[in-house]
Amino acid sequence: MDITSGRTAEQRTAKGSCCGLFRLGSPVPAQLWKLTEREREVILLLGGAASNLRIAHRLGIGERTAKKHVSNILEKLGVGSRLEAALLAVDHHDLLCGGWCPSGNPP
Q: Which domains can be identified in the chain, with CATH numbers?
């Protein structure tokens, strides 16, 4: 039981979320739809606090390529940091997941 909200962990997770991630409930930014499939994979990993090196290893790409993907994501979403992009990834996980989920759970 979470003493600040009086809710259990299960009550705080999103219903139907493939990974059970807590969702913040912000509106979906239109720019989210501009991300390529690869950028969606990268932002999902950002949502799990992955470094560029970790993203590179996970996706089988070079670290510089991972860094470029992150830069493209920040620019497309109009956010100033990896943290802002990661928060969007967590909040809109189900929309981004679409069959590929870094947690390994099916959507």
A: 30-97 (1.10.10.10)
